[in-house]
UniProtKB/TrEMBL annotation, chain B:
The keyword Cytoplasm does not apply. SUPFAM superfamilies: 2Fe-2S ferredoxin-like, Ferredoxin reductase-like, C-terminal NADP-linked domain, Riboflavin synthase domain-like. Residues 265-352 form the 2Fe-2S ferredoxin-type domain. It comes from the Bacteria. Gene3D superfamilies: 3.10.20.30, Nucleotide-binding domain of ferredoxin-NADP reductase (FNR) module, Translation factors. This is 2Fe-2S iron-sulfur cluster binding domain-containing protein. PANTHER family: 1,2-PHENYLACETYL-COA EPOXIDASE, SUBUNIT E, NADH OXIDOREDUCTASE HCR. Residues 3-107 form the FAD-binding FR-type domain.
Length: 387, 352
């Protein structure tokens, strides 16, 4: 008998088979986050990103339009991503110097006459195009040159993601983090969208928001979530915000959606954050965080810090008091909700290989967990039907 | 084959820019809605009988599909039909109209997410106006940027309508006026003075770079402007399949592959000067190689710059010039592997 964890077999969280299948059918077939728009600021600049099985690079042309290509030299496959030329008008492969223009056309094969006496048809050897777009200030790539547009993919959920304009905000570099969690990527997603745990795991870290009044749901495979500030935070909200507002009044609350697959956003009155989940192995996942804040002066940040100080000085703390903590670096005594989440994910993953693991009933606040499993099944099914 | 004309009743005549242009709206009976349906950017042919002769003219439709069928006609000095329309046509008259057609058309798609740049001048606005309206109405995830050239503020067709669009769709439509002869006391600050040229295009793209990355460029103006905008876009490496152009007064095909002419070239190489004959279809590099000389070269694709030489006399056309900066070209540098002669005497030097 297959052991089940709600809709999915427990295997889906532990086996290489499932991991490979998801890499092939989910992460290599969807729009992937590839950075912030400002990562490619000017003509000639480029970034590359691993998107499932595909490595795709994005380069900006002199017309300020982005191009995306599979990072594979059409000669023997070497990863290219090296621009040459004074203004970086061309991309040359390091191996045999085959050179492509920014439209991906193969324009030069060195020693062509000598090495290819019968000629090479350059017109069939252009770089394979992929797709790129910018949405909410983020770069997205898709391996297919003609994928469904982002309007099609995210259009329905877009209005539920908050009034933020990330392209007008400024990155706060100190908050940029990338770390690994020893758990399957779906465990990390499920933790992100588990409404039940908010008042419990984070009983002492996220209570400035009113989890009881959270509103959440789905648009296709994409999850949306919003909750208002808790009453004592909301009284004097403007004074209590730790940094200047990023959305106009009277908008309030926290928007914490999880776009498919594994693209988490977390946006409130005073900040905008991304939480990008990338599977590295059946039980290993990378999370990348970046934060944007208001485009305001140092003085405005200082004023907001002072005005909010009295609210935050006594706010929060460890879930477990000192006496219960196992040591200095016990995540349960950290007072940091991210540390709490990582801890919960890793502790849960450990049990999935036990023959005695048996899942308990899903609570109301866990309905998103169950629904996400269904989204995985549905997506796999459509993809498998299509191949 | 002689396509059918349909007799349509004029429902409204509206003078534009103080009578220098005229908008004519037709009553389109429901039974003809399909036959006379159009895509934004297309035009119609009208037939008049003037001076005992049949006169046919094509005019762009200045409304998007779904709005009334309307053309906007600028008076041509001494023009028979345009002045007839401006002076004599009145509501209730009937005009013979052929079904709309034309390649220069934009079909909006609600699921597409595009950035459209529109470059227009004078009455070239008419098809662009239809396109912009179609995008704003039917393509909600897309944005439109218009760069619009005119002589002065008095001559801007649809000036007010465009201002309204810019106000009502501030997040999705930007409007930039380029005036060649602005009268200072009437029009305080156009976006730029001058023409819709390479610099204006660069500046517009820098100010509002594409966010949606499916970028399309639409050009409609007099032939010279179209050529200039097209060249400026190509110089920025815009792929040809993203550029859509129509010049009023007929579509002018841009000059594509230039062939050279036979020439004699004086070539300075390694301290000596040689006389080299160049055939019409030969690049300078090939001619020099055929003459048994050993000039520097490598990629033969215009990429590496190894074959660079200085043109000191005569003219050439370069098929590609990726390895050169604009400043190199200004100095007279050429890529010999990409150059064909366009004057019959040339002097080039590899020693400079
Ligand atoms: S592998 Fe790229 S040039 Fe040979
Ligand atoms: S040989 Fe490389 S540019 Fe001419
Ligand atoms: Fe959590």
């Amino acid at each position: 008998m297959t052991r089940m964890y709600h809709h999915l077999p427990v295997d889906a969280y532990t086996s290489q088979d499932w991991f490979d299948r998801e890499q092939r059918l989910i992460f290599s077939r969807t729009w992937r986050y590839a950075g912030l728009a400002e990562d490619v600021p000017e003509p000639g600049h480029f970034v590359s990103v691993q998107a499932g099985l595909n490595n795709i690079f994005i380069v900006m042309g002199r017309d300020h339009r982005l191009r995306a290509f599979h990072n594979i030299c059409r000669h023997r496959g070497t990863q290219l991503i090296r621009a040459v030329g004074k203004t970086q008008k061309a991309l040359t492969c390091p191996y045999h110097d085959w050179t492509y223009d920014l439209e991906g056309n193969l324009i030069s094969v060195p020693d062509e006459a000598k090495e290819y006496p019968n000629g090479v048809d350059k017109s069939c050897l252009g770089l394979k195009p992929a797709s790129v777009d910018i949405w909410r200030g983020m770069l997205f790539v898709h391996p297919d040159p003609n994928p469904p547009s982002l309007a099609e993919w995210l259009g329905a959920v877009d209005p539920l993601l908050g009034p933020h304009k990330p392209e007008e905000l400024v990155e706060y570099p100190d908050a940029r983090r990338s770390y690994e969690i020893k758990a399957n990527w779906k465990i990390v997603v499920e933790n992100y969208i588990d409404v039940y745990h908010l008042s419990h795991l984070h009983s002492n870290t996220l209570h400035m928001y009113d989890h009881a009044r959270a509103e959440y749901g789905w648009k296709g495979p994409h999850y949306h979530f919003w909750e208002p500030p808790a009453p004592d935070y909301a009284t004097n909200l403007e004074k209590n915000l730790p940094t200047p507002r990023v959305i106009p009044e009277p908008h309030i609350g926290a928007w914490v959606p999880m776009l498919f697959p594994g693209i988490g956003l977390g946006a409130g009155e005073d900040s905008w954050n991304i939480f990008i989940i990338t599977p590295l192995g059946p039980d290993l996942t990378r999370v990348e965080n970046r934060t944007k804040l208001a485009n305001a002066s140092g003085w405005e940040f200082q004023k907001q810090e002072w005005s909010s100080w009295s609210f935050w000085k006594d706010f929060g703390g460890p879930k477990y008091p000192d006496s219960d903590a196992t040591g200095e670096d016990d995540p349960m005594a950290s007072g940091d909700f991210t540390a709490e989440d990582i801890y919960a994910c890793e502790q849960q993953q450990k049990s999935l290989t036990s023959p005695f693991f048996e899942v308990g009933p899903a609570a109301n606040g866990e309905s998103p967990v169950v629904r996400h499993q269904q989204a995985i099944l549905d997506f796999l099914e459509t993809q498998e039907a299509g191949t | 084959m002689n396509p059918d004309f349909f007799s349509l009743k004029v429902s409204e005549i509206r003078p534009e820019i103080k009578g220098k242009a005229t908008s004519v709206t037709f009553d389109l009976p429901a039974s003809l809605a399909k036959t006379l349906g159009w895509q934004a950017g297309q035009h119609v042919t009208l037939r008049f009988h003037l001076n005992e002769k049949e006169q046919r003219r094509s005019y762009s439709i200045s409304n998007p599909p779904g709005a009334p069928l309307r053309i906007t006609v600028k008076r041509v000095a001494g023009g028979l039909v345009s002045n007839h329309i401006g002076d004599h046509l009145k509501p209730g008259d009937t005009v013979d109209v052929m079904p709309p057609f034309g390649q220069f058309s934009l079909t909006p798609d609600p699921l597409k997410r595009r950035t459209h740049y529109f470059f227009g001048a004078g009455s070239g606005i008419t098809p662009l106006f239809a396109m912009i309206n179609a995008v704003l109405k039917e393509e909600p995830h897309s944005v439109a940027h218009l760069i619009y050239g005119n002589a002065d503020g008095e001559n801007i067709i649809f000036g007010e309508e465009l201002d309204n669009l810019a106000r009502d769709h501030a997040a999705r439509f930007t409007l930039r006026h380029v005036l060649s002869a602005p009268s200072l006391w009437r029009w305080s600050s156009p976006w730029r003075k001058g023409r819709v040229d390479a610099d204006a295009i660069k500046a517009a793209v820098m100010e509002t770079p594409p966010v949606a990355q499916d970028v399309q460029y639409w050009i409609c103006g007099p032939g010279a402007m179209n050529t200039e905008v097209n060249n400026a876009l190509m110089a920025l490496d815009v792929p040809a399949n993203r550029i859509h152009a129509e010049s009023f007064g007929g579509a002018a095909a841009p000059a594509s592959s230039v062939t050279g002419i036979a020439a004699n070239a004086k070539v300075d190489l390694g301290g000596a000067t040689y006389e080299v004959p160049v055939a019409a279809d030969q690049t300078l590099l090939n001619a020099i190689l055929s003459a048994g000389l050993t000039p520097p070269f490598s990629c033969q694709s215009g990429v590496c710059g190894a074959c660079k030489a200085r043109l000191t006399n005569g003219r050439v056309h370069m098929h590609a010039r990726m390895a050169l900066e604009d400043s190199d070209v200004a100095r007279g540098d050429i890529l010999s592997c990409q150059s064909v002669a366009t004057s019959d005497e040339l002097s080039i030097s590899f020693d400079k």
